[in-house]
Design a protein that fits this description.
Helix content is about 65%, strand content about 0%. It is mostly helical. The protein has one domain (about 5-170). The radius of gyration is 20 Å and the shape is globular. The two termini are about 25 Å apart.
Length: about 180
């Protein structure tokens, strides 16, 4: 399992190469969006937001926004450390926080949640390829993190697999084993 510095170094080292992959389809704008979203995903939206980590500290005073997230999830849980589910969960958490803040700030002239969601829908329609590159960048940085931790499948899923193998052995059915090469 890599430490925070190793995660950060790998994120910085691979952000531009990941962004460059988008050049043939989206040009300079796609490269910039993919690179920045990879950095954002790796440095600010890390799977380690469920602990007191470098990513949590980078939020500065806004790190308090992640306190409920940390309290609800145990480290390396299925929700925080599973490919696709982890990134989607963190992004959904931010969207829900943003909508809640819109409701609270409504008396001060903030837009309603419906207006924000309408603007997001318009943005999706107008800039879909760039938004896909951005989402792919956040997810790719999460995959990098999980691979550096040793396995992109959380501990809980590995334990379930091991339990299923033990049960099948007890019942007389042997689970297929990998052959040594």
């Amino acid at each position: 399992m890599a430490n925070g510095r190793a995660h950060d170094r790998a994120t910085w080292a691979l952000a531009l190469p990941f962004g460059a992959l988008w050049w043939p389809w989206l040009g300079l704008a796609g490269t910039a969006v993919a690179t920045c979203s990879f950095l954002l995903g790796g440095l600010l939206l890390s799977p380690d937001l469920d602990t007191r980590s470098n990513a949590t500290r980078r939020w500065g005073p806004l790190r308090l926004l992640w306190w409920p997230y940390r309290r609800l999830l145990s480290h390396r849980s299925v929700i925080s450390h599973t490919p696709l589910i982890g990134s989607a969960g963190r992004l959904l958490y931010l969207v829900l926080l943003g909508l809640a803040l819109c409701l609270l700030a409504r008396p001060l002239g903030a837009p309603t949640p419906q207006q924000v969601l309408g603007s997001a829908q318009d943005l999706w329609i107008q800039q879909r390829p760039l938004l896909i590159a951005a989402l792919a960048g956040v997810e790719a940085s999460a995959w990098l993190h999980l691979i550096q931790d040793g396995d992109p499948v959380p501990r809980m899923l590995r334990q379930r697999r091991q339990t299923a193998r033990r049960r099948s052995r007890r019942s007389g059915r042997m689970a297929p084993r990998k052959r040594a090469s």
